[in-house]
Amino acid sequence: MMEGKWRTLVLATVMFNLGFVIWFSFAPFTGGIADEFGLSVADLAVVSSAAVIAVPLGRIVIGPLTDKYGAPATAGVTMVVVGTFAVISAFAATYEVFIGSRVVASLSGITFVIGIQHVSEWFEEENLGLAEGIFAGVGNAGAGLGAYFTLPRIFGEGWNGPLFATNWRAAFFYTGALAVLVGVVYFLVGEAAKSDAKRRATRESAGVREWLYIATRYGAVALSAAYVMTFGLELAMNGWLGTYYREAFGQGDVVVAATFAATFSVAAGLLRPIGGYVSDVVARNETELLPWFDGRYREQWTFATLVFVVCAMVGMTAAGLTGNVYLAVAAGFLVGLGCAFAEGAIFAQVPAMFPDSSGSVTGVVGGIGSSGGSLYPLIFGAALLPNLHVGYAVAAATMAPILALTAWVFRPHVAERATTGGWLVDAPERTEPASPAGDD
After folding, report:
1. CATH code where residue 22 lies
2. Which one of 169, 185, 281, 385 is CB 3.0 to 4.6 Å from 164, fit for a cystine?
3. Within a domain: residue 39?
4. How many domains does the chain have?
5. What is the pLDDT of residues 123-143, one digit of tens each?
């Protein structure tokens, strides 16, 4: 049993990390891609947006499919499909084929839901937070340590290796081929659950009516919106910052620009367990951070982190307007820090707010939250803006309605019925408990 749970954790973490590498493998190479297809900065913003556009729906759909068929099956199919299309993108001769293949390859982002479900099928509740933290932290770091740090150094400007003389085509091909291999191994080696009874219970617990009810409760809606402006923002920044540091500051060296961008993604990925830990501490010690949400300790910490993200985004614009790239990199790190703390806080609150349905809420929050990754790049690279620095402040302004929604839901008299009060869907006659979820 011990061997099985750790094998599962390793398989899930490797899959998720490689999934994030493939998801953002285009980001360090946007200069070469733009030259190849004659793209403008606005076109590159569309490429960044396209890399995320299929993930929100994919995450929502893959959750119940994984419950039904088991993680080894869905992980195997997902990695083989995204790996195949990553390889196709390496051979793309037209912009249309390139975009289309990268949209499908971006479905590597749904590996989060598969891994969360698989780890929760093996680890006992008292160790689930640690296991999911390892899975999510290492996996999310794939965008920074893998895509931004590793790929530009392996596939540098002077790349002239087997099959390809173009570095980005080689990067897409070899990461895609590796994904196919990981998918096959996952299918052959992975086991869906620690016992037949656990597997049976998970398969039989999902229902459309129950899912719709959970997805429309006040708490789920508020946390989903909050995840748009945190994890969605993280996705957007991961795909955009390489372009930003190159175009706004003239950092033509792909390795230097990618390294600057990696400071954000490493902070956003590796530091998020701190956000969850602080949430646990303030709840356990009943620490009043914001008296407006009296007695709602996790909500207070979550709201404070959301406000920090908005302030940090305004600071990103201010730093960029100074013209000092190092100040802009430091500001980007603070944005990543805010995203990490907020995401950790949100996914500490999910099981606390929905103790019997955290698996369903994880799919909803993770899926809807990913949509921000498609929306924010369009703001960052909008042609109407006077420069590339202003977009961060504009994005911060769009987050004000989300702050208003969370402030309303986090008020004590609303928060106490956040799991039962909601819109559109009445309570089903019977609700099955969902598996506990973890971090993204």
Report:
1. 1.20.1250.20
2. 169
3. yes
4. 1
5. 775 566 567 767 877 777 765
